[in-house]
Amino acid sequence: MTAALAETEDTEAKAGADVSLSVQAHQSLIGALREGQIRSGAFLSMPMLVDILGLPIAAVREAVKLAEAGGLVSVLPKRGVVVMDAGPEMTRECLELRAILDSEGARRLIETNAILPFARLREDHERLRDAALTDVTPEVQRRAILTDLSLHDALAAGVGLKLAQRIYDDNRNRIAIIQNQRPFLADRIVSAMEEHLAIISALEERDVEAAVAAIRQHLAHTLRWWGV
């Protein structure tokens, strides 16, 4: 192996490692935001982020750029980053955007006769609703978020466009930051699961009009619960 070839391979390996670290840093940053380790409106310097994520500053900088592109943080040059504000306007826009994608996904799923795991979706929602009627433990609250996402994820995937999926994924992360401001309570878990079950029923019946109406009703109730 020549010295030039060896140098090229070393450079490529280093570049690959840098990319891998950047991806890891981005995933860790998203995880910290979604889990509430980093809260809405928080200011963090780059050294603080490096400590939280436990990764090199170069990788963290790349992660911040990606998070900024997704609307999750704003960069303050030479100072640090500010996490998005989960205020009323942002909350309304994120939930409205989700409902738009939900509605289009439902329409396409129905019109293409797509197969969805309706039985599993229904069972998961009914079991969570029944559990919330008994006692809302931290585990039930955790399941509430996952069950809530299971239907919204399926509807967004139904749109069938890569760009739409990217928009949904970014919005999904923003909504996770918003949800960290207020935990799911028993009454909201129960009503949200009932609203989701109405959407599932409309999908099962291949009724576009009913599905869109159920999605809009779910949006209205969610906005009301958030007070926006």
- Report on the biggest sheet: 3 strands, antiparallel
What does the overall shape look like?
Answer: globular
Q: How do the strands line up in the largest sheet?
A: 1-3-2
Give the class from helix and strand content and strand pairing.
mainly alpha
SSE arrangement:
Blueprint lengths: L2 H32 L8 E2 L1 H8 L3 H13 L3 E4 L3 E4 L4 H24 L6 H17 L3 H20 L4 H18 L6 H19 L3 H19 L2
Antiparallel strand pairs: 1-3, 2-3
Helix pairs in contact: 1-3, 4-6, 4-7, 4-9, 5-6, 5-8, 6-8, 8-9
Structure description:
It comes from Pseudotabrizicola algicola. Keywords: DNA-binding, Transcription, Transcription regulation. Pfam families: FCD (PF07729). One of its GO terms (molecular function) is DNA binding. By secondary structure, the protein is mostly helical. It has helices at about 5-35, 45-55, 55-70, 90-110, 120-135, 140-155, 160-180, 185-205, 210-225, and strands spanning about 45, 75, 80-85. The chain folds into 2 domains: about 5-85, Arc Repressor Mutant, subunit A; about 90-225, Up-down Bundle (Four Helix Bundle (Hemerythrin (Met), subunit A)), CATH 1.20.120. The chain has a 3-stranded antiparallel beta sheet with strand order 1-3-2. Helix 4 (about 90-110) crosses helix 7 (about 160-180) and helix 5 runs antiparallel to helix 6 (about 140-155). The longest helix is centred in the first third of the chain and has 32 residues, at about 5-35. The chain is globular and about 55 Å long. Residues about 10-15 have low confidence and may be disordered.
Q: Which terms summarize this structure?
A:
9 helices; single chain; mainly alpha; 2 domains; Arc Repressor Mutant, subunit A; globular; 228 residues; 3 strands; 75% helix; Four Helix Bundle (Hemerythrin (Met), subunit A)
